[in-house]
Request: fold
Amino acid sequence: MSLTFKQRLAVIEQQPQSIIGLGRGIEREALRVDENAHLSQKSHPYAFGSALCHSSITTDYAESLLEFITPVAKTVPQLFDYLNDIHHYVAKNLDVNETLWPISMPCYVNDQSAVELAQYGSSNVGRMKTTYRQGLSNRYGSMMQIISGVHYNFSLPNDFWPVWAEIHDSPLSGKERQSAGYLGLMRNYFRYGWVIPFLFGASPAICRSFIQGKETLFDFQEFDEECIYLPYATSLRLSDLGYTSSEQAALNIAYNSLPEYITSVRDALQHKSPEFKKLGIKNAGNYVQLNDNVLQIENELYASIRPKRVLNEGETPSQALHARGVEYIEIRSLDVNPFEKVGISEEQVYFLDLFLIWCAMRPSDSLTKAEEQHYAKNFDCVVTQGRKPDLQLEIEGSTKTIAAWGEMLSEELQQLAVVLDKNSPDNQYSDAIKHISVRFDKTELTSSARVLSHLTGQNRSKCSLALELSKEYKKQLIAQDYRCYSDAYFEQQKTLSLQKQAQKEQADVLNFDDYLEQYFIKAQNK
Reply:
């Protein structure tokens, strides 16, 4: 018989070392924009070194789309020391007329051809990264690809997994136990992960240029000539208008065990797309995409959460998972927080810690394909109309309002917070859930409602408000001091990254066609 939540929590409380030393990392994306809120047309700044090889400053899809990557931190203050220092250095070295766009949905983009693909040099690996982005551009268009987000990487300490086995009565051990635990966490995230866009979604409005003639069934309302919105939306970034792929809907990615997950991802990599086949592979000798499969490479799989493992040189994600199991999970459903100069708050991270531990503690039965589709519909419903009064969701056979689900979740998270706070000098976890939990009932306190309130209350366009925030945040970031790094550190990282890129370019012996052929042959091996 399954233990109750209080019984599972008691087991953890009796072994406090099991929740000491959580691993956390943040990847924050941000567009560079000019003084008119237009996409920067300038190349990746030299001060940031090689986008291919820099340890903490790179680019995502476009030359103008920066990505900041923290090391793994064992405390939340340490995590934000890393994140603030990276932002401080970047702000100081941006062009005088450039700022970082502080929201997820892009600034005004009149012509998608103005979006320059990220460039990584002349090495085969660098050319492959740019070619992959060329494929994304041809498949989905550049507007979708320059949406920004915040990814949260999370790992539980090694001492947690024997406790996990005890509370779930699991006979597994070693990497199999840990991987099963993370997959169970993920399945519960699919069931309850709608709380992330509900609480923290901050993209209820978009610039009209984002549509650019696209057909949509959404009944948008207008702020002004440039800004449209949905009154109850939480995160249009995560809607069908945002970072999604209808081509991937037919893929049957399985999350019931790691072997099933790896097999289903590899099957998806071989799944041909009639639509993408029409594009061809090359045009006039230039690559249009890496291949005509539904997924060019594993990174193209869009998911709100992913199992992850640090890769060895030349390894694919599924090869790393097969060899060594799941090391951490990556949460991909966080909008950029427009009310924070680094795009996320410490309070959000404390909540995420609580929620993800709760997902790992909670029983997590296998999911059928029909159940996965049902929970995906729940998620879609919340991102487009999550603040709608009396909206109800069906989860594990029970139907409740958002407020009722939030009450259940908050009660258990508050109990968990008390246990976690015993290992710290203050009550960060209890304070975080106390402050955030009221949003389930008072939806006007959610991030998305606050965004709409700022727009309507100040009679401002989305772009003008975001531009003003971006300028203010740049001033604040430049004015603050380093917390753990220094200019000398970043200068060293710049030099090292450029040297590493040069070494990769000099080490190539294959031409690019042969390199890709060899890459995909190796990718099929376990």
Observations:
- Residues 5-523 form a domain with the Creatine Kinase; Chain A, domain 2 fold (CATH 3.30.590.20).
